[in-house]
Amino acid sequence: MNQPQAQTQLRHGRVTSPASRGAVAIEQGLLGAWQVNEMEGGKNFPALTAGPFPTPYGSDSDSVTPPADGYILSGGKTDARDCVNFTDEEMSKKLNRPFSWPLLSVTPGQTLEVKWEYTAPHTTRGYRWLITKDGWDPKQRISRAQLEAQPFAEDFYTQVPYYSYPGELKAKVNHSVKLPATKKGRHVIVLMWIVANTGNAFYQAFDVDFK
């Protein structure tokens, strides 16, 4: 019964490489691809409230309310997609067997290549990257207190207003980011694809191990 509905809901986009938490959840049979394509929440994160997108992009659509602490990695979704917010312990209970999120091996300061697959490539403002603080606690869900206060990278189109550049503000299939040079060990990275003409961003999360 659910299959036709799932087919009609393949929308928006997700990272296909490297493997995100959403991809792992698909692999574990907890989510469908369409659900990972729609990890959609307010684009002003890490702000707490809805409202105008910051200058100089204030002519973009206002942000809806950003995700609450504990629900950041799912873009604020609290349905089945909540599983991407789970700690190792929560996932172990869900799967009824020992589980830990697989770690992508990275090196400090390296360039990470990312590939997206879009089913609805919205007018794009850009991409924002955040990472957990040193000493963060993997036994707690990701909250603002667990993340560095400032993004470690942003990749924004500068053209404003967005509606004057309909052919230029395109979602990027391939893009790259320079990872922080001072991190060690296990961390969580949050990548936001920020849309210009809606109040949302699409959230993707990665578990990494800095060697």
Automatic annotation (TrEMBL):
Annotated keywords: Monooxygenase, Oxidoreductase, Signal
GO terms of molecular function: monooxygenase activity
Compositional bias annotation for Polar residues: 1-10
Keyword Oxidoreductase appears in the UniProt entry: yes
Annotated stretches, region: Disordered: 1-21
InterPro entries in the record: Cellulose/chitin-bd_N, GlcNAc_Chitin_IntDeg, Ig_E-set
Pfam family, one: LPMO_10
Keyword Oxidoreductase: yes
The Chitin-binding type-4 domain, residue ranges: 12-208
Highest taxon in the source lineage: Bacteria
PANTHER family for the chain: CHITIN-BINDING TYPE-4 DOMAIN-CONTAINING PROTEIN (PTHR34823:SF1), GLCNAC-BINDING PROTEIN A (PTHR34823)
Protein name (database record): Lytic polysaccharide monooxygenase
